[in-house]
Amino acid sequence: MTIEIRPITRAEAKDYLRVLPWANGLPQEEPEPSAWYAGRAANPPQRKATPEQLDRYADELLTDWFRPQAAFVDGKIAGGSAIVSVDLTLPGGRQVPMGGVTSTGVLPTYRRRGLLRKVMAAMLDDCRERGEFLAGLSASEATIYGRYGFAPATFQHRWEVRRTDVAFRTPFTDPGTLDVVDGASAAAIWPVLHEQVRAVRVGEVSPLPGKWSGLADGGLPADGRGPAHHLIHRDAGGQVDGAAIFRLPWSPDPDYAGELQVDAFEALNHDAYRALWDYCSISTSPNEWWRHGGRWMSRCAGC
């Protein structure tokens, strides 16, 4: 068996994509619902990429910010991973380059052979050569990465709360205003708001190209959770200081009918934070649940 670890060429892009769980339709999550996922499924549904999608993904794959490495076994791509270039906010507001690990997978028939270890070593060497002295990821399977030198840097939380069981501890009067806007307005608001938030939030990362491109159409997600609704908060002076994206998926189960799922949430101050959560907590019928799936991250390009 001959093993080679190297970057892929454009002609090899589709073969690389076929080893990745999010493209080949194989499960890629731990048994419990992921913190970032607002839905109820333990493993969010996977759909195998169509030939047309693979062609489009391959055209978008090889860029300056996306750097894949593949493990070739006897000339065939059996596994791979990639680094995306982002900036990370440190305490004090300084932003430094970071290599974000993403798009990782090894075909089931080639596991337990050390392929991913070799790929990770190649990627970290590449980061060092480019001056990216930090590497990070948002793990879908957290037990994997400790063997490669990674350790927890922060935590995500998943909340499932019945509205009637919680309330604000003290009365709250919002000095600003809330509004539900369309996708086009949200697409203009989120990039500006995110830049403001990440300048002051330790551990926040810069958005990848195309991060906000899907907001304007407000389409249905692949898992059938219904269309996105865009909530924004403005301060007393009319400036946007918070936003949230939520869904109200239909369910045949009466226990979950009217459930509100929060996909994205950003706030610059406590007033915006409380006002947004106050709205989300009263937007369902009195006996229903609302859920927050943690920090919003792109599934196939987040780190």
Automatic annotation (TrEMBL):
Q: Where is the N-acetyltransferase domain?
A: 3-175
Q: Where are the transmembrane segments?
A: none
Q: Which InterPro entries match?
A: Acetyltransf_17, Acetyltransferase_Eis, Acyl_CoA_acyltransferase, GNAT_dom
Q: Which Pfam families match?
A: Acetyltransf_17, Acetyltransf_9
Q: What PROSITE patterns has UniProt attached to this entry? A: GNAT (PS51186)
Q: This protein's superkingdom?
A: Bacteria
| Family annotation (PANTHER family) | N-ACETYLTRANSFERASE EIS (PTHR37817:SF1)
Q: What is this protein called?
A: N-acetyltransferase domain-containing protein
What high-level taxonomic lineage is stated for the organism?
A: Bacteria, Bacillati, Actinomycetota, Actinomycetes, Propionibacteriales
